[in-house]
Write a structure and sequence with these properties.
Four copies of one chain form a homotetramer. Chain A is an alpha+beta fold and about 425 residues long. Chain A has three domains: about 5-230 and about 370-395, Hypothetical protein af1432, CATH 1.10.3210; about 235-315, Up-down Bundle (Growth Hormone, Chain: A), CATH 1.20.1250.30; about 315-360 and about 400-428, no CATH class. Helix content of chain A is about 50%, strand content about 10%. Chain A is built from 22 helices and nine strands. The first copy, chain A, has helices spanning about 25-30, 35, 60-80, 90-100, 105-115, 120-125, 130-140, 145-150, 160-165, 170-185, 190-200, 215-230, 235-255, 265-270, 275-280, 285-295, 300-310, 325-340, 345, 390-395, 410, 420-425; strands at about 5-15, 15-25, 200, 205-210, 315-320, 350, 375, 380-385, 400-405. In chain A, helix 4 crosses helix 8 and helix 13 (about 235-255) runs antiparallel to helix 17 (about 300-310). Chain A starts with a strand and ends with a helix. Chains A, B, C, D: This is HD domain-containing protein.
Amino acid sequence: MFRQLEEEKVFKDPVHQSIYVQDATIWKLINTPEFQRLRRIRQLGTSYLTFHGAEHSRFSHSLGVYEITRKIISQFERNGYSDWPQQEKLVSLCAALLHDVGHGPFSHSIEQVFDTDHEDWTCEVILGNTGVNRVLREVSADFPDKVASVIRKTYDKPIVISLVSSQMDADRMDYLLRDAYFTGVHYGTFDLERILRVLRPYKDKIVVKESGMHAVEDYLMSRYQMYWQIYFHPVTRSSEIVLRQIFRRARELYAEGYEFGFMLPPLRQLLQGTLSVEGYLQLDEALVQTAFGQWMEEKDELLSDFCRRFLNRVLYKYIPLEQRDETWLNGLRDEWKSIGLHPDYHMEVDTPIDLPYDVYKPGEDSPEKPPILLLDDREGLTEIASKSEIIQSITGLHRGKYFLYYPEDLVRPHASKLSRLTRERLSL
Amino acid sequence: MFRQLEEEKVFKDPVHQSIYVQDATIWKLINTPEFQRLRRIRQLGTSYLTFHGAEHSRFSHSLGVYEITRKIISQFERNGYSDWPQQEKLVSLCAALLHDVGHGPFSHSIEQVFDTDHEDWTCEVILGNTGVNRVLREVSADFPDKVASVIRKTYDKPIVISLVSSQMDADRMDYLLRDAYFTGVHYGTFDLERILRVLRPYKDKIVVKESGMHAVEDYLMSRYQMYWQIYFHPVTRSSEIVLRQIFRRARELYAEGYEFGFMLPPLRQLLQGTLSVEGYLQLDEALVQTAFGQWMEEKDELLSDFCRRFLNRVLYKYIPLEQRDETWLNGLRDEWKSIGLHPDYHMEVDTPIDLPYDVYKPGEDSPEKPPILLLDDREGLTEIASKSEIIQSITGLHRGKYFLYYPEDLVRPHASKLSRLTRERLSL
Amino acid sequence: MFRQLEEEKVFKDPVHQSIYVQDATIWKLINTPEFQRLRRIRQLGTSYLTFHGAEHSRFSHSLGVYEITRKIISQFERNGYSDWPQQEKLVSLCAALLHDVGHGPFSHSIEQVFDTDHEDWTCEVILGNTGVNRVLREVSADFPDKVASVIRKTYDKPIVISLVSSQMDADRMDYLLRDAYFTGVHYGTFDLERILRVLRPYKDKIVVKESGMHAVEDYLMSRYQMYWQIYFHPVTRSSEIVLRQIFRRARELYAEGYEFGFMLPPLRQLLQGTLSVEGYLQLDEALVQTAFGQWMEEKDELLSDFCRRFLNRVLYKYIPLEQRDETWLNGLRDEWKSIGLHPDYHMEVDTPIDLPYDVYKPGEDSPEKPPILLLDDREGLTEIASKSEIIQSITGLHRGKYFLYYPEDLVRPHASKLSRLTRERLSL
Amino acid sequence: MFRQLEEEKVFKDPVHQSIYVQDATIWKLINTPEFQRLRRIRQLGTSYLTFHGAEHSRFSHSLGVYEITRKIISQFERNGYSDWPQQEKLVSLCAALLHDVGHGPFSHSIEQVFDTDHEDWTCEVILGNTGVNRVLREVSADFPDKVASVIRKTYDKPIVISLVSSQMDADRMDYLLRDAYFTGVHYGTFDLERILRVLRPYKDKIVVKESGMHAVEDYLMSRYQMYWQIYFHPVTRSSEIVLRQIFRRARELYAEGYEFGFMLPPLRQLLQGTLSVEGYLQLDEALVQTAFGQWMEEKDELLSDFCRRFLNRVLYKYIPLEQRDETWLNGLRDEWKSIGLHPDYHMEVDTPIDLPYDVYKPGEDSPEKPPILLLDDREGLTEIASKSEIIQSITGLHRGKYFLYYPEDLVRPHASKLSRLTRERLSL
């Protein structure tokens, strides 16, 4: 099943130094149009507007996930652990590589507004009429289904799912290291080599040797820091809010029969909810940003303003709210109207809690996110939080402040018309 | 002239850790649409197709050039060197920051095909009806002219030009470090802190204390290695060739009156040679790549094939030529025609020599590239190559191999129709 | 008071890149015999027997503490904070530099066995007949007293004490970074630059801007990890136990009038409890290790065996104890005797808790270890643990396992004579 | 021959992250007293007096050389190169590990003064009555001889010698990286991973794939920079000169029958030229420095002064000489005498050329230092300098300035008695 390349291919990678490809199937997958397209999708969505180094793509992340998976399996093979089913190597590597192949541009915002799901798209790319599917079918007729079932977490070898998708999987390990590298913070750095050394296949799970507990603490603390310092950064949230207003406004206008000065087929499909795989694959960040650039000229003032804000980085301002003060917020909607603003577009209360990111929650023993288990010679398996107070302490922490986001530049000229409380809270 | 911000602004940067903005003019320049647009222009053009980490933008590089310039001036001020004219700080910082503001998408290819020049565009952005110009005019009516004349190297304080543009200027120092960081190679690393410490203002030049000679050797060797390992990498050259074919073919079709299925105003201006500043500023990489995506559907087969190659990374293959064998190459054009290929598009002989990069050439004492001078208490100034055999050795080295690039996938099926010599040379 | 050197001196340092000396007093202090002697005292005592890279000296650490202090003060001066008393710069820098000048070889072990205290010795070096004292007196007659009182935490400017000695002082910041660098682990790395940026002088304390809370969390987690991974490593503990047996045995023999085959005056003074400053300053690690080498030839078998163990790294083995099982341990002493071993020397129960290191304990508001305070515009000062659950979680954590240490090589040959429980526990 | 350890042993290393020991013989060798003794010998001799971070030992370097050798062999095995004789693995690893086991304290100085050779001592440790010999003999009776013959470059498998000792061997690769890491300069960094990837066994040599040429250039430039910036640093040279005066004076005094206040058997053996292996192994840096400390009290003023200078870092000053001006230097000897100084001890003219370090000299095709060969499919083997002008340029470069070293503190008080030329040259 594993067809050795004549000569190993090596990618230079800033995070892992080198990424080694030894199998022909992997090499062909990387060269499909669908995988190459990930070069035009940023890994961190709008974070580059907060951390200018965060311009790296899902292409480089996907190679990194593949490489970490390869290293884990290679460690298992080197040590000859009998609980690792050796014939599962290729399906594991393919699932690792293709894990994010269904990501679109600024996925989080698009998924929120249009209620799509990148995991579904990943499976469609794997199973549909695509280059990826053709390469996988060369392995065997049912191979695409196998890979897709790993992504969907229904594969009949749970250890493969555990490897590709868990609280300490190759995906998370790569993105923490990579996002730290490209933003330039050091919070995300942990001792990858040490963690790779303490992983063990055990029955149908990947677990951690007990002596590796401090290394896992370190990894989880890195993750905790990255979430609060990078992923939930309020400036990034602001840029996502502006981005969502664009999509929401465009969808609304489309529904109303508005004539867009600029339109392209995949965008139209998106707005009318009829995206095909082909259309989806054309929807990269280049296309979306080009549309925004053209829409800056639209006669709908809301749409053109939001596009201008996004491209020129004129974001919404934010203030922390001690708690959701619904009375004041409801009143604020009326105040907004009174000065000519749209409360549905020009204010948003946000808390990081609804982001698709998560901090480690040990109780959560769902098939989706198996917890991290420590393996001890005497006691067998234990969930890590029960042994580590550090890890307990970051569970359910920081339930997230509320922030109010709004376009200050539009509000300030009308400050005198606002209530005293509002002026105070917004420092006007 | 220097208007201190109330609170210093800090950008997190992977290369310099932090970038400090203390002056209101700099802060406002960063927030202009023209400068923000640099986020949509990659620093290294097509290099990301060879080194996937090289996805960083000219935005981050421009901030880096500003920061290095700020550090050099700060060192001069701290030591109170009388040869440094203190009132030139703001013009120097602005010129450093805006140095690349006229860069377009994939500048090298576009400049070659359309004969434009990013330095001219930089001056147009500084002097034209732009946000940048408005911010600069707030300083004084003639301030935009001053900044532009630094870019054009005609400013009447040569020391400012020497600071912003020389063989060891902030521009080169930042891009070597930054490109090394993002590609993940270490060749470009040199001891920036040490170099900053040995720079001295001396009469109307920036020179190097003699004890810094080895640090300069190290810097020049880094530069040499980066050129040959990164900038002149044949895979990158291949992607630039494919890119040029797109632009050449599109211009040719446009001239012939071809009806494009997809067109946007700035593209049309580009093809007909009538680009305005406004049009140019819309021409970012997002727009160009979107056009390529749409042109994959054009009925002109050459154009659609080149676009597909570029986006899906199906590049031309290359073989090294010991020397330009004109007889064989001329014959090859005919062989190409005989198998239905276009010699003007389907083959290209390339040598890195014509790239806008350069290795250090000490003799070249043009106002464009002042050489690096060592300052010695006894001897005064000496050009560095006369003291360092290392530096002499990398002067004029490696005049560049010739490579032949061609689409192997189109040639191989017709191999049997080609001459024996050709088959041998192309390993068919 | 500050006498600028004609030319700034620069030390190349792996942790801080460069260490800058601008004041003549600092330069002279570095060149005293007492300070140079720190080159012959390892920063981490016996840790090099566990982490071979940990061979760095207190000399380099002391320079690092000085440099961090210099940077903090420089930030205060640059921002013109009025709560920082500018005239305290030199006394602060001297106290930072000389903080550890009284450390002897393997201080922890020697202090435990001989009940001495390196802080007392530091003051004696500062106040006694030494090169250090002479340099300090050049500043003013009472300057040595001032510096010593900072070390003793009785100086009448509490902010200076807060700078030099607190839960987040320059000492701890340097040793975490330095020990991480030289051992090669990355746990100790935190964002020094960011922490330096959020420190503020506030009344008579150094506090942290509230937005710096996550950076402090990161620093404290680094510290927590370093303590458990490096400082309390059981192999290092084992080597300290062996070392203590040497000193204990030598003292016992000396008291009994034993004739040593090798003796030197400072050693004799140590063993008889009459160490003078002059003697103490001769007691470096070279001398102590040389004595051990010679004592390998002593006729007292215990002493020669312990010396051999220490120099050849034949350490005691250890097993974790679930709890102090006094009944078994008492019985073990008898079992030891029955096989010819000395229970006072050949077994030791150890828990890290008694080490002079500490994890952060927020409640502990002693003048010795002022807690870390956050400064908020609205609320004023708050102890950090009350805001951070992370920090709460590492307070009083890990009260430390008990370990039993013993020379397995001496026990194993007699295994059959030991009780079954003992054989089981020791895996014999 | 290879006896797998039950569990792989891992050393944490700052340069290679981890050092893996899988074979029982290697593990036992590391635990011999002779190898542990390398912890008390600094890798860089007196360089720590110039670069305070350079406190690392030959113990850590020896582990590093072993690890690089292990990685090279592992690459050969993984790729199944038939030119690599697989049964030579253990002898190669042992030779790599033990390569420096015969180094004494401050070897360069001791070898110069007493005309000993650390390579001879290495062979004596391997072949003599030592722990190392006993471990090697467990493999087979002739195994110590085999290992020693690799060290002596007479082993009958030249490829093993080429691996352990050549212009680009594991020894050099480790020390460049390690010395750069611990001094904190970055000159010594090169892409180790890439170099390991381009090495090939070819007939009886280790050669380099041609595509690795730039990587080798980079390695040789690092080496060149390290030599001139670190190894030949004039302050380090000064400290070695002071050190040599101690040894020269002590030997002279011993020959004259002087009664030393402090003496130990191995020192006496050294001074009378009768060092046994046992004595040599006791001669570590601790002992030597302890002797210097005691000799500070000797009544011979020269000896006590040199010892004080070395321990307190009161080194000789140096001035560059344009050329060896013998007339002036001869006169200077007389001037020295006239002011009561000893020309044999108080002045020394030095040029780096006589150091046991070397820059790459391609012509030098001795069995000692085989040149670096490039392997090309068409052309076979070529010496690298013939292809690289960079490498040519660093051949024979920098023949080394002359420096005059002398104790300025002893000269300055008598400046008025010196000739005008001397006063000028010494800036008195």
